[in-house]
Amino acid sequence: MAGKKQRARKIHVWISYDLGGDHKKYQQIYGWLKGYEAEECGNSTAHLIYSKGARRYLARSIANELKELFDDLDNVRVFIVYQGDKNVLKHKQIFGGFKIAPWANIDPIYV
User: Fold this and answer.
1) Which of 24, 33, 45, 74 would be a feasible disulfide site paired with 38, CB 3.0-4.6 Å?
2) Quick one: pLDDT band at residue 47, thresholds 50, 70, 90?
3) How many helices (H) and strands (E) does the chain have?
4) Is 34 helix (H, G, I), strand (E, B) or coil?
């Protein structure tokens, strides 16, 4: 249907953030999360409902909002998990990179 505007769908997003101990950045992201009525899910992890724009641009949209929030992206790491098409989970590292996991040199325990 040409000309018919699609409504943005509600997308569940889980966001994990490491802001390098910068108190000001944490206060800024807390305000952003509050604006989305996010739920706390553990240390530096939250769940929110995102309904701005198309699903395929979700990571870019969130990245743009967070870029406006912070003065700089030094020591900022943000990772999201979200519902992709047909409710398949997708993930994206928005800022920063992965570090070596603290458990990398630990012997595995199998139960």
Assistant:
1) 33
2) very high
3) 2, 5
4) helix
Question: Going by CATH, does the domain composed of 11-95 fall within 3.30.70.240?
Answer: yes
Please give the structure tokens belonging to residue 72: 């700089």
Domain ranges of the chain: 11-95
Strand partners, 83: 89
Burial environment of residue 47 by CB neighbours within 10 A (0 to 12, 13 to 18, 19 or more): middle
Tokens representing residue 60 in the block: 């870019």
Alpha-carbon span 99 to 77, nearest angstrom: 10
Q: pLDDT grade, residue 8 (50/70/90)?
A: low
Please give the model's pTM, rounded to 2 decimal places: 0.83
User: Phi and psi of 32, rounded to 5°?
Assistant: -65, -45
Confidence bin at 3 (pLDDT 50/70/90):
low
